[in-house]
């Protein structure tokens, strides 16, 4: 296999693009996909302070690496979920990464904010584990950005993540999540910062290869609570489709963004208010995060 | 397991409905689902002549059985695809079924109409096998209905078929097929008859159980060309989702029809003309069927 660009020995084949690359040209390809995402969806400029949610995994650290290299003003945000050793190790990876590069890292503790660490939240709420955790993370990312004056939060969601989320929403035709599924969500309220996903054009395999080739030390384990999660089954199904027809995930996600999403945007228009309790944005009177925190408090 | 209705011994559990039935109550349930489909989508009345496409398989013969029992005016339409023994056997099943019940059966030969039987059409066209065959069948069903004065064609597509078709369209976000995916397509042109699918509320397992319990003699083999078809992979995937979460197919299809289809209908509006060659309906100048027949003629 030869590198499509330089003709040298390739280290990686990207079947969905029908190309192979040597290590330097793959890294170049990867960076270009990130800048293409940022440019196409006007995610942020070099003058803006970007808050980047980092988990210690390959995706968010690969993204941080690319953004730092490209000269963007980034600050890491680590949300400490309090999930035993998993959280300790992933925090350590983020701290080491930031220290190596002289980058700033904010840490927010879920235990302090919600009233209990995720394992306890999980026991208290009837929601599926990943649902209560995802809700808390989205809330705390936005809060941290508002508290520290960041206009935008970036996350490390990749093509596989986005395709799996879309797949789950489509199986139930959840029109609100479908309308919100986008690489770049604008701020639709003064208390809601922009949310962007600069890795949406890159697969999980590609971010893993990037992290490996760049020598990034990341946590390999998945969250222990993710086992059996529906999103993992959806990822397996999409991998099977991708295997049978390279580009399947890509076509599924991009096709949605181009051809179907506009139809759902028209359907779902919601009104946003400030939560009577915390002042953050909600569609109801009290936001889902405050309700969750109440539930945790009552159970303690 | 007890029958939900009579409390007797159940023979069949329907996990997605969370019920079990004895044989007579299952047959009753099955018939009710068909009448519910007919009623809800105003498919046809007892005064209308219905042309029912029959393949000799469990679905179309089960449907014919239900419609005859319910007193509808049906005529069977067998499309002879010329696929070796498979076609001979399936034709024989249809003829025996019709003779047993004193029902009328029309037979149309693909070889006569297209110029060659499907195995030869398959060799000539670059389309995937099922695509050329599907195109020919849709064309010939409509033509037979027009030629013999039927206002409506019914087919035996079941829930699994419909969910798999939807799945395929969604993976590529094919907006035109999405807009056309419906249990009942109205006539949008004087030369286009209505098309209806009275089994869309019943799964493949349910039609198989109905055919078995009613002692219907149907052809069990699948079409020999279907092997490896993408639609079969999609059915497998949907079966896996159904296994993990009973009702998944049902929710996927019904959710689409209720919540998403209206959005696509608005997007896709096409203008219909009469084909310059055969006079049937097309979006272009010469219809796809005439083009296919030309291709077959040139190759001979």
List keywords for this structure.
alpha/beta; globular; homodimer; six-stranded mixed β-sheet; 300 residues; two-stranded antiparallel sheet
Number of helices of chain A: 12
If you average the pLDDT of chain A, what whole number results?
94
Largest interface: A-B, 24 and 24 residues
Query: What percent of residues of chain A are in strands?
Result: 5-15%
What structural class do you assign from the helix and strand content of chain A?
A: alpha/beta
Query: What's the number of extended β-strand segments of chain A?
Result: 10
Main sheet specs of chain A: 6 strands, mixed
| Percentage of residues in helical conformation of chain A | 40-55%
Q: Could you list the spans of chain A in which at least 5 consecutive residues all have pLDDT below 50?
A: none
Oligomeric organization of the protein chains: homodimer
Q: Give the CA-CA distance, first to last residue of chain A.
A: 60 Å
Order of helices and strands of chain A: EEHEHEHEHHHEHHEEHHHEEH
The geometry of chain A reads as: globular
Using the CA coordinates, give the radius of gyration of chain A.
19 Å
Strand order, largest beta sheet of chain A? 5-4-3-6-8-7
Task: Give structural notes.
Two copies of one chain form a homodimer. With 300 residues, chain A is an alpha/beta fold. Chain A is 52% helix and 13% strand. The first copy, chain A, is built from twelve helices and ten strands. A six-stranded mixed β-sheet of chain A has the order 5-4-3-6-8-7, sandwiched between helices. A two-stranded antiparallel sheet of chain A has the order 1-2. Chain A has a two-stranded antiparallel sheet with strand order 9-10. In chain A, a hairpin with an 8-residue loop joins β7 and β8. In chain A, α1 (23-40) packs across α9 (204-213), α2 (58-69) packs across α9 and α7 (159-172) packs across α11 (248-267). Chain A is globular and about 65 Å long. At the A-B interface, α7, α10 and α11 of A face α7, α10 and α11 of B.
